[in-house]
Amino acid sequence: MTKVALVTGAAAGIGRACARRLASEGIAVGVLDLDLEGCQKTVDEITAAGGKAIALQASIADRAQVVAAVTKLREALGPVTILVNNAGITDTTPFKEITDAQWDRILEINLKGTFIVTQVVLPDMEAAGWGRIVNISSSSAQTGAIGMAPYSASKGAMITLTRTLAQELGPLGITVNNIPPGSVMNTVMSEANRPRFNMERLVQSIPMGRTGEPEDIANACAFLVSEASGYVTGQTIGVNGGRVVS
Question: Which CATH architecture has domain 4-229?
Answer without folding.
Answer: 3-Layer(aba) Sandwich (3.40)
